[in-house]
Fold this sequence. Notes:
32% of the residues lie in helices and 23% in strands. With 547 residues, it is α/β, with parallel strands linked by helices. Among the domains are: 37-53 and 66-186, 3-Layer(aba) Sandwich (Rossmann fold); 441-539, GMP Synthetase, Chain A, domain 3 (2-Layer Sandwich), CATH 3.30.300.
Amino acid sequence: MTPTAYQDTFAADHLPPRDQWPELINVDQLGYPEWLNCAEELLDRAVAEGDGDRLVLRTPEYSWTYRDLAERANRIARVLVEDLGLKTGERVLLHAPNNPMLVACWFGIIKAGGIVVATMPMLRARELAVVIEKARIRLAFFDHRLAAEMVETRQRTALVEQALAYGNGELEAGMAAKPAEFAAVKTHGEDVCLIAFSSGTTGVPKGTMHFHRDVLAICDTFSQHVLKPRRDDVFIGSPPLAFTFGLGGLVLFPMRVRAATVLLEKAPPPELAKAIEQFRPTICFTSPTGYRFMLEHAPACNLSSLRQCVSAGETLPKATSDAWFAKTGQRIIDGIGATEMLHIFISASGDEIRPGATGKPVPGFEARVIDAEGREVPPDTIGRLAVRGPTGCRYLADERQKSYVLGGWNVTGDAYRMDADGYFWFQARTDDMIVSSGYNISGPEVEAALLEHPHVMECAVVGVPDAMRGMIVKAFVLLRAEAPAAGAALAEQLQVFVKAQIAPYKYPRAVEFVAALPRTESGKVQRFKLRQAAEAKATKGEAPRTN
Ligand code: 3UK
């Protein structure tokens, strides 16, 4: 049984059995005390150590200092404890775009000994209800502009007893009646403080449970050793704080070094590029698509303030890395992370970057490539990625724990190759590998080749059923604005181009031009949707075009 300081033991009671946990390594090296409240560590300590007047959160309209944030978090903690009867260990839902009050709620909940369950602002009532039921949530804070969705959510589930809106004065009125001080609840380093739902590309969402200690661990591994932020850095980026990529990159990493962060409620690439020009941040977190679209739609924007750019969520193709380098002189830091691991565990920065490769295990983590039986394979062999470190997968009451953790290693569902120098090269999601005429083909490798073509803006490559070959490679292509008209001639041009870049058997035998690719809220291409669409077409007797 995990030691817990909590009155409500739901989280501890629903951790997977110990023998299903991944092996946690290098925890002691992090040197954390046994009792630890991560909100106190990241926020109260900043104020206590004299950094209360430093700016921490900036928006296009206003800025908050560390003290402003701490005072708001304290008042929110008091509302939770004194008005809403929060028991320690209770889960609190957050539903809002990236803004300072969302961050204040995050810290308020954790200071009060609650557990944060943050949800992407675009989630609808049906999806919110699933999260609420799974994490047994009684209390919610939300941005008042999302009120309609919250009303509908509460019609679907009766669990939420109190939902307070902010931005319209409701939560603010409760806060105004409270003093600005609140002593953080003494929590254990292994108490759960965060349940992050995996964006997953398919299936029922999985809640991943993370400890107070884990929140600091991601700051003191990837951020400290690979990103290397400084006190005077200004962070910016697009991922929602409900996505742990965004939480780390836009809140935890800056605050660990007392830096500042620019929060944008909506950050599609053109807006992100404009905000970079306006705020002159030094560190940017976004997706590969974010970088590609910034180049396409904001070529004239001044991005010269950036000194570190981080990409995650999907593989960063060499073509994107090169194009960004040509425009900004910056090599993007690619990093693979997962909700289960909380943040990035393989990456590289500076001179260590090899464009096209993800990088090497982040200090504190170990990674290897394994075969179907779980044995490590020799270098340059494609297999399944397995990783372990101070953080790891602990699903909330989910059978899938047994398939994610094998022999103490976290198996992420990614096919990878490690080269002789120890660099890890992403191949595909394991279930996205295409087998055609007996060949194993990685969709993202074909995508990387297509992206080298000047007319290709975005693309996704999947396997679709084919009577002759079992499966054929099909590319869905989104063209650049200045590309010639979509049609058979251009499709053939792309096919010839791919054959010249990579082994010809990998070329897309079918090419379909599309106006957009289906994506998850965290920005990942939903290849299963493309496969389903292609299969539906095939069964309707509409054969995919083959050349
Ligand atoms: C894929 C990548 C290739 C990969 C995440 C940074 O993406 C994050 O978490 P999710 O749970 O998805 C995990 C899966 O996404 N992936 C992520 N990064 C890369 N594939 N190259 C990459 N650089 O399939 C992985 O298993 O949504 C990323 C930090 C925190 C995160 N939660």
